[in-house]
Amino acid sequence: MSGTTNLLTQPAPSPDADLRPVLIRLTDVDFTRGQRTILSNVNLTVRRGDFVAVTGPNGGGKTTLMRLILGLLKPSAGRVERVQRNIRVSYLPQKSSIDSSYPISVREVIASGLVEPDKEGRVDNMLREVELTDHASKPIGALSGGQQQRALLGRALISRPEMLVLDEPLSYVDKHFEQRIYDIIRQLAPTTTIILVSHEITTVAAIANRHIIVDRTITVCNSAHHFARVALCD
């Protein structure tokens, strides 16, 4: 894809990277549901400016990890510390987590990401950004799966978050908009802390400064440039 060569020649992270402020810290975290252990002995620190690419098998606990990070779930054991609580955080959940029958328009879905009145035309700008201007007044349930995903992405981006958590943002979108998402992520990465879950990890990991694999616990991938398929990180 375009831009990949430049990404592979990015300079190595600064040796002072670990001096950046900690945003989230997970220590010895377990999460169980009933008799099932979903995550075990998870230790993870997210610092300001990180771009963490997350992959792993279906059922490995990726979405559960995102919800623990966001405080939407509480660990069964261990500790989740949100060290800096005054930052703007946005979350793009998996598309399957929304109720498409809810009577709300595409414009309203995107506007719901704002915490203040839209005084700058940001909703119209975001509709253009996610290429949904022509669908603004349609109910969210009338859109295709890919269009719904774009609306949810717009909702996540409109508040200009300092930390952005994206759970499978490429789901359902076509190749054209997949490239658009990569472009958006590249633009945000220098100023935004990003945690992104994806099965399409090759391009994402090339942009990220960290790559972790979630399969009931966390394994750090240390492949050169983080540009490798999961099999290479075993």
Write a structural description.
With 234 residues, the protein is an alpha/beta fold. It folds into two domains: 20-87 and 162-234, Rossmann fold, CATH 3.40.50.300; 97-159, no CATH class. It has helices at residues 4-8, 62-70, 106-111, 122-129, 145-157, 175-188, 201-207, and strands spanning 22-33, 36-47, 51-55, 77-82, 89-92, 163-167, 193-197, 210-214, 218-220. The protein has a six-stranded mixed sheet, with helices on both faces. The protein has a three-stranded antiparallel sheet with strand order 2-1-4, covered by helices on one side. It has seven helices and nine strands; from the N terminus they run H-E-E-E-H-E-E-H-H-H-E-H-E-H-E-E.
Radius of gyration over all CA atoms, rounded: 18 Å
Shape: globular
- What's the architecture of the largest domain, going by CATH? 3-Layer(aba) Sandwich
CATH topology of the largest domain: Rossmann fold
Domains (count): 2
Number of helices, where a helix is a run of at least 4 consecutive DSSP H or I residues: 7
Helix percentage: 25-40%
Class computed from helices, strands and strand pairing: alpha/beta
* Average pLDDT number: 84
Largest sheet properties: 6 strands, mixed
Distance between the termini: 26 Å
Number of strands: 9
Fourth CATH level, the homologous superfamily of the largest domain:
P-loop containing nucleotide triphosphate hydrolases
Estimated share of beta-strand residues: 15-25%
Stretches where pLDDT is under 50 for at least 5 consecutive residues are 1-15, 224-232
| Strand order, sheet with most strands | 5-6-7-3-8-9
CATH class of the largest domain: Alpha Beta
Order of helices and strands: HEEEHEEHHHEHEHEE
